[in-house]
Amino acid sequence: MERFPMWDGPRRKTGLAEVLTRVPDNTWTWLLLDWDGVGEAPGGLGLEDFRDLVLASPAGISMTWSEVRAFAAAQQDVHDVLLVAVEAAADADPQRFARDDFSGCRYLVEGFDSGNWTVGRPASDAAPDAAPAAAPGAGTGPV
């Protein structure tokens, strides 16, 4: 997995939409497990209601890849976010998620406390024959 600071210099914060350019196009089901930030909530919900809905959904809020990208584009600032990709919504395991165990997930995107981004396949899912090709915008090594 790739880890890098959310802040790229003293005044520029890397946004979720930019981070998603490191993720290959896919047909996975994405689950939004945590979110706090400033922007537009999907479905016309207010930010507070949306934040509460996410927190009250142990299996996450299900989204397609295009919905994830649209959601990211509507965010002005992300403080915390946790998105995981699974083959199908039925693969969601809220009990594992509660233990921060994402080993059955295909991909993970996490922004934590306005500090760091983590992007990639969870360690136990990154078998050598399943390693993804370098994503657009990916650096040459850890930052």
SSE layout and pairing:
Layout: E1 2-5, H1 16-19, E2 29-39, H2 47-55, E3 61-63, H3 65-73, E4 75-86, H4 94-98, E5 107-112, E6 116-120
Antiparallel strand pairs: 1-6, 2-3, 2-4, 4-5, 5-6
Report the count of strand segments. 6
Distance between the termini: 12 Å
What overall geometry do the principal axes of the alpha carbons give?
A: globular
Low-confidence stretches: 125-143
Share in helix: 10-25%
Beta-strand proportion:
25-35%
What is the helix/strand order? EHEHEHEHEE
Gyration radius, to the nearest Å? 14 Å
Main structural class: alpha+beta
Strand order, largest beta sheet: 1-6-5-4-2-3
Tally of helical segments: 4
Mean pLDDT: 86
Let me know the largest β-sheet. Answer: 6 strands, antiparallel
Can you walk me through this structure?
It is built from four helices and six strands. The protein is an alpha+beta fold and 143 residues long. A hairpin with a 3-residue loop joins strand 5 (107-112) and strand 6 (116-120).
